[in-house]
Write a structure and sequence with these properties.
The protein has 9 helices and 7 strands. It is an alpha/beta fold and 312 residues long. β2 and β3 form a beta hairpin. It is elongated.
């Protein structure tokens, strides 16, 4: 059977179109004859990623970006086709990041720890790696804010200083500096005295340190003396004194009660009056004896008085 040229052209055209479609899909990461699991992730922006970019895990390619579409809320839904049959926990994330030094974009699957696994068509969380400029801006922004705040504080400080540094204030500052210089000069003059005081303190400290053993001996002797006094006959002496006081109190009590000669003398008023009268008479007698001694004493140089001769 002879095949016409038209048939040959049609078959070749069909094959060429099929190869072109398959090649185009392959170059865009779409595998027509391979069934793959799909996961959907929503991002606020795609950060330079496009269809056909790889999906990797620990540097190993497990799939590609198969579709990117805009959702109703303004965010972007990216569909990832996964070739490998691996369990993916439901709390896993897919992060868009740079996969080489030239800045080529890709996606990295970061497995979670959930015991529940995602299925075909599920939506999981997404994450975006900061670009170099974004990373620099994120680190510079706090420094910039602090610098702006510092500049504002410096402006306020300068204004405050301008308000405070009046001519009178500067004059007072100058006078204060002169006083401080004068005080420092006096301190320099007295530094020798201070050194002498310090040396004297050091000498006293050294003497105390050198005589530490003597001081310890003195304290030990004082303790021994105290112990000796505590163990001496001091208690016996105190007991004897108490005994004597009790005896004096007993004698005083007897005198007050009129017992004994002294008690009778102290308590008998008549006897006291008689003794007082006798003492007064004796005093008068002594006075008369001094005034008239011949009345009471007579003597003769040649012996005997006239009365004695008459008796003889």
């Amino acid at each position: 059977m002879k095949i016409s040229n038209e048939t040959k052209v049609g078959v070749l055209t069909t094959i060429a179109v099929t190869v072109l479609v398959l090649g185009y899909n392959f170059l865009n990461g779409r595998e027509v004859f391979t069934h793959r699991r799909e996961l959907i992730v929503q991002y606020p922006y795609i950060n330079g990623i496009k269809e056909g970019n790889p999906l990797i895990i620990n540097g190993y390619n497990i799939g590609r970006v198969t579709n990117i579409e805009l959702s109703n809320n303004g965010k972007l839904n990216i569909t990832y086709g996964i070739n490998e049959d691996i369990p993916i926990p439901s709390d896993s994330k897919i992060r868009i990041k740079s996969i080489d030094l030239l800045g080529a974009k890709g996606a990295e699957l970061m497995l979670g720890s959930s015991e529940k696994y995602s299925e075909d068509g599920d939506t999981i969380s997404g994450d975006l790696e900061l670009s170099l400029s974004e990373s620099v801006n994120e680190q510079v922004a706090p420094v910039k804010a602090k610098a702006e705040k510092l500049l504002g504080s410096m402006d306020s400080l300068i204004l405050s200083l301008q308000a405070v540094l009046t001519p009178e204030f500067r004059k007072n500052i100058s006078q204060s500096m002169v006083s401080i210089n004068h005080s420092l000069a006096e301190f320099d003059q007295n530094i020798g005295k201070l050194n002498g005081i310090v040396q004297n303190v050091e000498s006293i400290t050294n003497n105390l340190s050198n005589n530490n053993q003597r001081i310890s001996n003195i304290l030990s002797n004082a303790n021994k003396i105290t112990d000796s006094l505590a163990t001496s006959n001091l208690k016996e002496a105190v007991n004897n004194a108490n005994k004597s006081l009790r005896e004096v109190a007993f004698i005083t009590n007897k005198i007050n009660n009129g017992e004994g000669s002294l008690g009778m003398l102290v308590n008998d008023k008549k006897l006291y009056d008689n003794l007082n009268s006798a003492a007064l008479n004796l005093d008068k007698l002594m006075i008369d004896l001094k005034s008239n001694p011949k009345r009471y004493v007579s003597f003769s140089v040649f012996g005997g008085s006239k009365k004695e001769k008459k008796k003889n």
